[in-house]
Structures are given as C-alpha cells and as structure tokens.
C-alpha cells in the first residue's frame, strides 16, 4: 500500500492536534477541579467562622470582609438558582458541608463562584470575589498553539510541493528526455536537491551531445576510407582473388563499425525497437545472409513459427551467436533449431571461458582475454543485450563436448495453426 508523504504529514498533524486538545483539556479540567475544591474549602471555613453557634446567626459583615458579596440582581439570582435546581444532584455530590449548617453550597456560573446559603430558610446567593475563573490565558495558549500548528502544516505542504514536479522531471529524464528544467526557487533541502539534479542533467546533456558529435566524427573518419576502398575495388578485375579478399575485408569493417554503433547505443539505452510479427525462419535466413559464405557450415531446423520482434536487431543477434559458434567450433560447423518456445544454437567446442553474465558487460575482457582468443567479445555482448530488450531469456550449458545456447522466446512466441 502506497502512502504519500502528504498523507503522512497530514496524519502527523492530526495526531499533534489531538495531542494539543487533550493536553489543554486535561489542564483546563484539572484547573477547574482544583479550583472547585479550593473554593469549597474556603466557603466552608468562612461560613464556619462567621456563624455564631450560640445565637445561630450569620455575621454578614464578617463574610463581606472575606470577599462575599450578596447578589442583588434578582434576574441573575433566579437564573443561577434555576441552574442549581436543574443540576442539584451534581452539586450535592460535591458538597462537603454539614446540611445542618445553613445548607451551604457552591455554584459555578459564567466563570464566577457563588455561595448558596439558606438564611431563615430563604436561599441567598453570595458572589465570592476572591475567586474569579480566568481562562483567557488557557484559551489564548490553545489558539496560539493551534494557529502555529496550522501554519507549520501548510508551510511544510508548500515546501514539499516541488517534489511532485521534481518526480515528473526525473521520470521524463529516465525516459530519455534530457531537455528538462528542474530549477526551484528556495533555500530548503528540496530546492537544493532539485537544483543539483538540474545541474547534473545539464552536465549529462552536454556530455551526451559531445559524445554524439565525437561518434559522428569517428564514424565519418572510419567510413570515408572504407568507401574509397570499395570504389577502388571496382577498378580491380572481379575475377581476381584480391577482389574477393578485399571485398570481405571492407564488408567486415562495415559490420564492425555497425557493431560499435550498436554497442554505444546499448550502453546508453538509446537502442529503440521496431517490433512486429515475423516468421522466425525469415529472421534466421536474414542472419544467414549476413554471414554470407560462412553460413554453409550451419545446419538449420526451424518450423513455421512467428515471433514478435525487431527484425534487423534480432537477426543481428542470432548472426553473432552463429558466427561465434562457427568461429569457436572444432569442426567449423554449428546447428540452429527451433522447438516449441526455444531457439537452440549449438556447436562442438570448448566451453565459454567466463560466465554468461560477464559477457553482458562491454570491455570486461581487458587484461583477461587470452592471447589465442579471436575477437573482442562484442558480438556476444550485443546479442545478449538485444535478447534482454526483447524479453528473451538466455541460458548456456556445455555437455558432451557441446556448447549450447538456449533462447526462451515464450514472451514473443506465436505458433501458427
């Protein structure tokens, strides 16, 4: 399950808000509870002090000196008494005073405390001026913390917003588009990462342009003498043995240049596929045509099968395997067959010097290649990478003096009825 960064921040903010509310509520109710107990103790002590047990009278002047102010506003007094009668059970549960002692009780109303005392069986309300509930500080603190959290939340969301743009640019870049702009204004870490990535993209673009220019120049410099040589070859008698030898040399040089181009494209991921449905036999025949006279030593056993692939690329890959099979075989013969969902290429010869995975790396043989080896290993590198981009799995084994390559074409296989 994918959870976005925005969702995580929102959840964290929600938990923080719940925590703030719970803390403020705890502090607020604890304060009220403590204040209620303190007021009741004060009222009990004041009434006990002002009450003369001998005369059974209450010294109102003494109460006044202790901060008791008799409530004269009848409307307010009636409102408080109605509240008291409505919730009498709640107040009685809290009352600690002996009921015989003027039946006193404490009532909280609009952030103020009132003492209810029965004088001559008549309820009289006294406002206790000594205790005034002042929750302004608590409310101010709650509003301040809530506002701060909201501002921080939106500031974080605003700071991570460029991540979505950066992700889209990175995706475009991974798909081969290096003409992108990732610069972001800001001084935070996200802006720094985006700007560093933008600088890296520009540097990579410059390197790629330089590489392409270099490759074009190299290809031009190599192809020019080959073209001149082929033109000069036309002046030699076609029946001359030199004509045949030179023709093979020039063809070989052109093939090498094309292979170097493919190596460069494979290494940079620029090799694009032009797939379609083709008969496997036609692809193999094209590979044999490229091999020319060398194809005479190859035994072919292929049925009526179709494969979804890039015709030229797959033919080149199979040609390279067949060329290697002939080159490294003891009897200068090789075999290619297609059965069910596999293509099998085999020859009689020594096993591969390195593991198949090593041949997927270009130039890996630097310093390792044996002196008697007859190639650079580029052909197998190109073939394996072409098979990979076709989703064709490649396996190699050596048994009974035979080197066997097995190409699983299940993902591209289509048997014709």
What is the beta-strand fraction? 15-25%
The domain tally reads 3
Number of helices: 10
CATH superfamily of the largest domain: Histidine kinase-like ATPase, C-terminal domain
Q: In CATH terms, what is the fold-level topology of the largest domain?
A: Heat Shock Protein 90
Please summarize the sheet with the most strands.
Answer: 5 strands, mixed
Gross CATH architecture of the largest domain = 2-Layer Sandwich
* Structure classification: alpha+beta
| Tertiary shape | rod-shaped
The helix/strand series, from N terminus to C terminus, equals HEEHEHHEEEHHHEHEEHEEHEEE
Helix content: 40-55%
Strand count: 14
Strand order within the widest sheet? Answer: 8-10-11-13-12
Kindly, what is the distance between the CA atoms of the first and last residues, rounded to a whole number of angstroms?
44 Å
What's the Cα radius of gyration? 47 Å
Spans of at least 5 consecutive residues whose pLDDT stays below 50 are 369-376
Mean pLDDT: 77
CATH class of the largest domain: Alpha Beta
Could you explain how this protein is built, in words?
This protein is of the alpha+beta class and 417 residues long. It folds into three domains: 5-134, no CATH class; 172-272, Helix Hairpins (Orthogonal Bundle), CATH 1.10.287; 275-415, Histidine kinase-like ATPase, C-terminal domain (Heat Shock Protein 90, 2-Layer Sandwich). The protein has ten helices and 14 strands. It has helices at residues 5-50, 60-65, 74-86, 88-94, 136-174, 189-233, 241-268, 280-291, 311-327, 378-389; strands spanning 51-52, 57-58, 68-70, 105-109, 112-119, 122-132, 275-279, 298-302, 305-310, 334-339, 342-348, 393-399, 402-408, 413-415. The strands form four sheets. A five-stranded mixed β-sheet has the order 8-10-11-13-12, with helices on one face. A four-stranded antiparallel β-sheet has the order 3-6-5-4, with helices on both faces. A three-stranded antiparallel β-sheet has the order 7-9-14. A hairpin with a 2-residue loop joins strand 10 and strand 11 (342-348). Helix 5 packs parallel to helix 6 (189-233), helix 6 runs antiparallel to helix 7 and helix 9 (311-327) runs antiparallel to helix 10 (378-389). It is rod-shaped and about 150 Å long.
